[in-house]
Amino acid sequence: MSAGVKFFAGSASPELAGSIAGSYGQELGAVETIHFSDGEFQPRFTETVRGHDVFIIQSTFPPTEHLFELLLMVDAVKRASAKEIIAVIPYFGFSRQDKKDNPRIAIGAKLVANLLTAAGITRIMTMDLHADQIQGFFDVPVDHLFASAIFMPYIEKLKLDNLSMGSPDTGGTRRANAYAKHLDSELVICYKQRKKANEIDGMSVIGDVEGKNIILVDDIIDTGGTITTAADMMIDQGALSVRAICTHAVLSGPAYERIENSKITELVVTDTIPLKKESDKITVLSTAKLFADVISKVQNHESISSHFIF
């Protein structure tokens, strides 16, 4: 029998972790980090975890210290005799490295899965993996949550006429099509060509955008080049408005500047990654209640399928 549930936060996700624990009805446990002069660090739990089900909440966006901190925290509670060790990773870093699509490259997502398993996790919770097959990289249970449970009510509240869902690239067609079916709307697809990562060589639209209110759907927005280029192009072709919903707000490099200078009406993201700065064009929706509800159901051995809209 478990001695109870405890929540702890890594340094990447303290606010989200506090919100998840609060939604569950608890406070975060005490953990401190010792820093050495050469940059080495050591997390230390300052309360007992013996026999407890321990939830460690940490998104693993860059720098890689966030991932390594999570690994050290998992190892620490394993050695302190925690009963279950659940890594709650709202944003799973390195998920874009899910296959060997070029010679002599790593499959980073599989390597991270191996590291977490070796460290001692007994379960993982995450949201909107870049590729669904990453779940199969783990030999422990994976609760893969979908931000559609959060985004869908928000879209419905907008009550947009002539709504069309869109995918910013052909790889996201399945995701956008699921939204379109649920909302009984049309679907448009952007076809883009790249010469290298984060740099678009050309883009065209498949489908009619004239007189439409478009909502683009993606799992990650990084430099913002694809989303803003698509939005500007669709407005130029007669779209009434273009919004984007993206689960993970990586927003690196020139992303904020591109969003501010683009014709995009609104970018809606979640709090899996904290924003580096505020923007009038960016709306943040909380994932805390969804994670807390799923944690509660898992602890009570209840089905979590009701949380999946699609």
Give me the CATH architecture of the largest domain, please: 3-Layer(aba) Sandwich
Number of helices: 8
- Radius of gyration based on Cα positions: 20 Å
CATH C-level class of the largest domain is Alpha Beta
Low-confidence stretches: none
Structural class determined from secondary elements: alpha/beta
Number of domains: 2
Give the strand content.
25-35%
What is the percent of helical residues?
A: 25-40%
Run of helices and strands: EHEEEHEHEEHEHEEEHEHEEH
Tertiary shape: globular
Q: Main beta sheet, described?
A: 7 strands, mixed
Task: Summarize the structure in words.
With 310 residues, this protein is α/β, with parallel strands linked by helices. The chain has two domains: 5-146 and 288-307, Rossmann fold; 148-285, Rossmann fold, CATH 3.40.50. 29% of the residues lie in helices and 28% in strands. The protein contains eight helices and 14 strands. A seven-stranded mixed beta sheet has the order 10-9-8-11-12-13-14, with helices on both faces. It has a five-stranded parallel beta sheet with strand order 1-4-5-6-7, with helices on both faces.
